Amino acid sequence: MAPQPRLEGKVAIVTGGASGFGKGIATKFVEEGAQVLIADLADEAGRGVAKELGCASTVADVTKREDWERLLKEVVDKFGKLDIVVNNAGATYNNKATEDVTEKDFDLVMTVNVKSVYLSTSVIIPYFVGENIAGCFIQIASTAGVRPRPRLTWYNASKAAVINATKGMAVEYASHSIRFNSVSPVIGSTGMTHLFIGKPDTPENRKAFESLVPLGRGSTPADVANACCYLASNEAEFITGTNLEVCGGRCV
After folding, report:
1. pLDDT 10s digits, 133-175
2. Known Pfam families for this protein (predicted)?
């Protein structure tokens, strides 16, 4: 007998689901039986992934409250409810000396990485509480929020804020059975990799970064997706306030 899909009957929003980690998460969730709404600024790419996976997509700017309000309405109208929010959309600036970071760089990482989580929770927590849904938030943070490295100071700080806020909300809303966890990948293969490295994304430059990971490689979308699937599943019903490091031992 085939095992029951781990997310059967669940409905999820995955932000930034058109590429990278987000696409990996959406793929895994669909494979495990979830109904998924991909939310991404890249309309064509999002629709392409949705067609490939057999799920839904919509254009959304995660830094705008009205877009989160529309996302909630859209997912409930289409699927009847919402169970899981994966805050995967993120941004960084090019690896540089901290004194060279501009206000635009700072605003980018704080708005996209932190404000988006604030907006998602402020819009969707009342829905979970009002509908008595034991919902689940998963934030894609970073090892940078746990073990910060030079030249990405304010990106590091934005991810540390996400991890801290996730833990605080986990305690605050435990009485409503709403769970909050974060996943912190080590550097992997995404559209932002060259920004983290601060050099061209060549095999040689990537190898220098990956040599710092005890297990000898960067994270993949499948690694991150597997972690998210566990945290979203009923297997993790007693897991909240956790930052799951998907880092090959980098944070040790």
Report:
1. 999 999 999 999 999 999 999 999 999 999 999 999 999 999 9
2. adh_short_C2 (PF13561)
DSSP per-residue letters across 38-78: EEES-HHHHHHHHHHHT-EEEE--TT-HHHHHHHHHHHHHH
Distance CA 233, CA 166 (A): 18
Alpha helices for the chain (secondary structure H)? 20-31, 43-53, 65-79, 103-109, 116-130, 153-172, 193-197, 203-210, 221-232
**Sheet of 35-40, strand order:** 56-59, 35-40, 11-15, 84-87, 136-140, 179-185, 243-246
Token pair of 121 as six digits: 């929770």
CA angle 141, 213, 248 (to 5 degrees): 60
Whether the full predicted model's pTM is greater than 0.85, yes or no, is: yes
State the catalytic residue, choosing from 93, 155, 173, 230. Answer: 155
Name the CA dihedral angle for 228, 229, 235, 237, rounded to a multiple of 10 degrees: 50
In the chain the domains, ranked by start, together with CATH numbers, are 11-246 (3.40.50.720)
Specify whether 93 is catalytic.
Answer: no
Return the closest-CA partner of residue 114 out of 157, 146, 152, 73: 157
Nearest to 85 by CA among 95, 94, 75: 75
Enter the tokens of residue 98.
Answer: 């901290």
